[in-house]
What does this fold into?
Amino acid sequence: FKGDFNDRPKRDFAGDRHQGASAGGFKPRPRPAEATEEAGERIAKRLARAGLASRRDAEELIAAGRVKVNGRVLSSPAFNVMPGDIIHLDGMEIPPIERTRLFLFHKPAGVVTTNRDPEGRKTVFDVLPADLPRLMTIGRLDINTEGLLLLTNDGGLARVLELPATGWLRRYRVRVHGKVEESALAGLREGIAVDGVFYGAIEATLDREQGTNAWLTLGLREGKNREVRNILGSLGLDVTRLIRISYGPFQLDDLPEGHVLEIKGRVLRDQLGERLVEESGANFDADIT
It folds into this structure.
């Protein structure tokens, strides 16, 4: 990765930023009403949307007495919260509901997809533009993989879009060293087992060959660890460059390395469709904080 990590690029913005929020903080909120069990959103779902835990893990946190709503310790996940309710987890207030947002990031090689790295390596959050809200990644890319990485402020959306059941195809451009057998690539459509791990159907095409090197395009619907490298390695091919170029309907296109593009809310809602909006609990009505 070239360049100074501290000289962060400005983000490319494709939407309208809320002008009333103060920098680095949340909008003032009205005094919360008492939470009820007849309306609002399940507390476990709310914690999941904040990216703090899966719904199942959130239920365990609640059962352990670690969650408060408006000062009341909850003992059951069968409890709904309203937008103005103040929620604490282990004594720390969680942010209020925000509008669901999605960002495309051109991840450079050489950074890891994690919040903090125990080995002290640069993470994607170290190289993101500084003016972004609190975000989480949708899936991961290996340290040496570059290209499209989706980011969101909505934990529910992140979990839904990571699932193979969502059906979104992930496409990669791959440079390999070795002899490419097109018949072997065609066989990947049936899936393949490598070292006891089964990988589902893969779309693989040979784009061009340059001596002992070649460029391939792969499409897959899973996100298993080192999937592309393991699959091609089983065919005797050494991956020397790996670039994700699309994730579902979202494309890397000509987004510069290290830059971020926000997807407009109406475009995101249209691309998700009613089913994924419902499954993720995405919110397109709340303010941008």
The domain at 102-165+250-280 is CATH 3.30.70.580 (Alpha-Beta Plaits). Helices lie at 43-49, 55-63, 124-127, 155-162, 182-187, 227-234, 265-280. Residues 174 and 242 are 5 Å apart (CA to CA). The mean pLDDT is 86.
